[in-house]
Amino acid sequence: MRNFPDAIMLFAAGFGTRMGALTQDQPKPLIPVAGKALIDRTLDHARELAPKTIVANTHYLHDKMSAHLADSGVVTSLEMPDILETGGGLRNALPLLGQGPVFTSNTDAIWNGPNPFEVALNAWRPDEMDALLVCVPTQQTVGHKGQGDFTLHPDGRISRGLGHIYGGVQILRTDGLAAIKDKAFSLNLLWDQLLAKNRLYGVSYTGRWCDVGSPQGITLAETMLSDTDV
């Protein structure tokens, strides 16, 4: 089994309800930010690693997402009749992704700085880690009001706490997904298992980050991208 990820899972199945009218007739990852769809910005980062496989899960308005990706080389994993959340969606796509660790990425965040996939790959230590999350210090987030999801410790391990938010890109071993009984579930369930085993790690991102979770987030992200001081 390979120890280094050569497959990338993009989460693109959600409803995007917080975007209001913007997602009435298009999936959230197709919303443009500074003239480029959110998912295409994520793909720009992903392709710099020249991965063997890129998979995107689809559910809401899946025909439009599939049409957008038709000539991109991205394989789609359709979730029907029900959406499976991040954990269930990843498990559903495993036949397309293959064995061994994979990258996963949300498709609704804008990164301004180093490529987050490269940041993760450069910090990945397969003998020690079952998951490595790219985490952003709260003071480097744009438009985020929370105090953090995780505390990053000196040895690289993370625990639930304050100081860093999960930016949406990670490297993850998928073995533990098989034992989870729920059909639809969050990857938080797997992270909790890895926390108990001291196998959950993080790497701190040095640039800036914006979650495009609302219409206001589009303006914030475009302003951040126009700012060269990162």
Description:
The radius of gyration is 17 Å and the shape is globular. The model has no long low-confidence stretch (mean pLDDT 96). The protein has a single domain (7-226), classed as Spore Coat Polysaccharide Biosynthesis Protein SpsA, Chain A. It has helices at residues 38-47, 62-68, 85-97, 116-123, 188-196, 215-226; strands at residues 7-11, 32-33, 36-37, 53-58, 75-78, 102-106, 109-112, 131-137, 141-142, 150-152, 158-160, 164-172, 200-204, 208-211. By secondary structure, it is α/β, with parallel strands linked by helices. A seven-stranded mixed sheet has the order 5-4-1-6-12-8-13. A three-stranded mixed sheet has the order 7-14-9. It has a two-stranded antiparallel sheet with strand order 2-3. The chain is 26% helix and 27% strand. A hairpin with a 2-residue loop joins strand 2 and strand 3 (36-37).
Write the layout of secondary structure elements.
Layout: E1 7-11, E2 32-33, E3 36-37, H1 38-47, E4 53-58, H2 62-68, E5 75-78, H3 85-97, E6 102-106, E7 109-112, H4 116-123, E8 131-137, E9 141-142, E10 150-152, E11 158-160, E12 164-172, H5 188-196, E13 200-204, E14 208-211, H6 215-226
Parallel strand pairs: 1-4, 1-6, 4-5, 8-13, 9-14
Antiparallel strand pairs: 2-3, 6-12, 7-14, 8-12, 10-11
